[in-house]
Sequence to fold (305 residues):
Amino acid sequence: MATVVPSSISSYKLLRTTHDHNLFTNSTSCIYRSPLSNPKKRHVISFSSKKGKPGFFDVILDYIEGGPKLRKWYGAPDLYADDGSSLTEADKSSEEDEVRDAVLVTDGDSEIGQTIILSLIIKRIRVKALVKDKRAAIESFGTYVESITGDPKDSSFLKKSLRGVRAIICPNEGFLSKAESLKGVQHVVILSQLSVYRASSGVQAIMSSNARNLAEQDESIVVASGIPYTIVRTGVLTNDRGGKPGFSFEKGCTTNGSLSKEDAAFVCIEALDVVPEKELVFEVVNGEENVSNWKDQFEKLMQQA
Fold:
């Protein structure tokens, strides 16, 4: 049995962790040109879940990391198929001794969530993902992701979800409004469409009212938490391919502007590495400004706030 990544996520998108197209040029061409380059065939990426057989994504990582023998050197786990029971030992570790080196991605089933997860994996960052379908997530990402399913309102589940987590990336609204405590978390990155929800009217405003309420609650909770946070306010999210256009960070740009989902995921990944002293809130859409150094860009936005 295999699970299929949504067709809207291209093979190029799966491996691109930066907008430097030269980073994986050689590896992606070797992996994807044949047979997926056949224009008559549907571009579908599947991941094998057969016991003892490396999945397609495992093969990709083996290629990037220099082969199976270098897995341990890079810190990647050995290949094995299970239902997540391998997390037992980690679950037993005490909170006092735990190392907070993981990033929790909420809404890991979504397109943006999956793009963020894949980017984190390739950067060799330990990933925990909150998903609705754990089996599908395990089939897709194998042991590279600690896939967890449950209700954040459940304190014991939330505690387990946040164990070892240093940062949270929320590609959609709703998680923080359910979380009772974010103890131990050092940085929260929120991808917010609140500007779009507030600008909507008529039927669209009615349809997005629940999402707007959740987004407002999420922002209120993270502000009151005292944890350093970054809120990435976007315009309308589109399925356009990212990387080609630049960006715009002008105040009010989200009212009429748009941002590709791929670029939205990319900005969240870049924001993860720059932890503000207290907060960083900015608007971003696709535009004409090319960003060569994201750390400098975020520091510039902090100064403008």
In short: Confidence is low (pLDDT under 50) at residues 1-50, 63-74, 79-87. Residues 83-304 form a domain with the Rossmann fold fold (CATH 3.40.50.720). The two ends are 50 Å apart (CA to CA).
